[in-house]
Amino acid sequence: MVYFITGNQNKLKEVQAIISGVEGIEMDLPEIQSLDPQEIITEKLKEAVKEKEGSYFVEDTALYLDCLNGFPGPLIKWFLDRLGNKGIYDLVSNYENHNVVVKAVVGYSNGQDIHFFVGEVKGSIVAPRGESDFGFDPIFLPDGHDKTFAEMSSEEKNKISHRQQALMKFKEFLDKHG
Hints:
Layout: E1 2-5, H1 9-18, E2 23-25, H2 37-51, E3 55-65, E4 72-73, H3 76-93, E5 99-109, E6 114-125, E7 140-142, H4 154-160, H5 162-177
């Protein structure tokens, strides 16, 4: 059994919609602060394996704003906590460039090795639209679409999302390596 470490029920639902049979597990793991998502994930997985033997995966999402030279990246959680979606939109509105790249990095450990799987979607920051309790979804408009992630159904979002891309790569790895 492979366990997904998360306390975020929204994330768990998205993961289970993409990879069936995944069980969520909550672990109170320290989260180092870094601009490198792989470094954050590596430390989490090392701590998880110390706590309890097993195969685990975690996911870290990052939002790279062009106008801020890629900041906040994996620190988006803290940006959202302090500014909220409207605050991030207001900040980006001060710049001409509203382009953004959203990345999901899935890290998997079988207790010995760590493997990474990355998905990314390009888009832009727009005024908050749609109802969502899920991160920056109301302000993220993926390129080539007229709806924010918050305005999309979960099925629509899961077809194109950064998380779906990373999880599909992870699923292929699991199917190949057992």
